[in-house]
């Protein structure tokens, strides 16, 4: 089953999966800002062909099912920032190690790391179920808010092992209610990724109790997003947005949009270290262009033309990010990516697939073998640099530690919501 969200919505897709008691994996991709299409200019060859085209993929999500029930859901990246945020609830975020995963979950590394924490008794089963339930609800909130994009559902074996399964019908009822309420915050609040910051501390102090003011002032630092706050205090995004909304309307709190490069703490690049990037492509023009662009912008770039030799060379170079073409003779990019993901040395290394195929199925295949992202050829310098910076750029400043006072302030002063009551079916 596959199609576009303009033809069938996420709610109907989930209902069909539930009705058919299907086991498998749903991949959904949204569309964002305009992308690039070929525009050959004299003397520029094939390495710089850039004009705007209608749209490019913005984000991707994966949902895993067992007999029509949800096991786990998350975004399509190998990023562990979300899991780290959830671990702060139990003050064990520092136990998340890059080598912690004992489960080879290529297309769901976050799930594998969570299971490793359970196996090592860092988390209890109840804590694990609470985190998974929150992850599923967060993902469904994003999916049910989508109107443009594409999807593929593939039948297959269930994601293993399983800690719990969630019934779809009550989830849909709960999350659809949140999506409708979320619309009431527009245009003052329009994204869970927005970061509140206190704009008028004098007037805000007069409006709130002293304890609530201190908590809100500490959290509204312009760096911590509404979504992160909801993860820290174990409340849904609507509850958190509702808490700050009155003060946003009054102009006492402003909402900042996330910066282009404000990504997770899992970014590999750091001050004093030049990120090393390897480009595997049998095309001369692409290799030359990538090396030239990246080296001129402060990266250490190396290109490899022979896919058969690429694996051994990659293990020698130990890059921070890998650009890999899909269509190559003898060994294609899918095979290279899958082989690298089997090694613990490259389980978390960002792998960006380069392809001239602008097909949705090709992007799904890339995700299935563990690719982090993809870049469609031909591409421009700005597009390449933006994607590289996304995964090996400089990390943002440390966020504040969660404070139990915030949860109390929400409950006592900032209009709380009831605890989640979505039915959970434990898996023995």
Features:
428 residues; alpha/beta; Rossmann fold; 3 domains; five-stranded antiparallel beta sheet; five-stranded parallel beta sheet; 15 helices; 16 strands
For the terminal residues, how far apart are their CA atoms? 30 Å
Helix tally? 15
Strand adjacency order, main sheet: 1-7-2-5-6
β content, as a range? 15-25%
List low-confidence stretches. Answer: 33-57, 260-271, 394-409, 411-421
Radius of gyration: 22 Å
Structural class of the helices, strands and pairings? Answer: alpha/beta
Mean pLDDT over the residues: 77
Largest sheet: 5 strands, antiparallel
Percent of residues in helices: 25-40%
How many domains is the backbone divided into? 3
Mass-distribution shape: globular
- The counted number of beta strands is 16
Layout of helices and strands:
Blueprint lengths: L1 E3 L5 H10 L4 E8 L3 E3 L13 E3 L3 E10 L2 E7 L5 H7 L21 H11 L5 H20 L4 E7 L8 E3 L1 H15 L12 E4 L2 H7 L2 H10 L6 H8 L3 H13 L3 E4 L19 E5 L3 H13 L3 E5 L2 H11 L3 E5 L7 H9 L9 E5 L4 H9 L4 E4 L4 H12 L11 H9 L11 E3 L2
Parallel strand pairs: 11-12, 11-13, 13-14, 14-15
Antiparallel strand pairs: 1-7, 2-5, 2-7, 3-4, 5-6, 8-16, 9-10
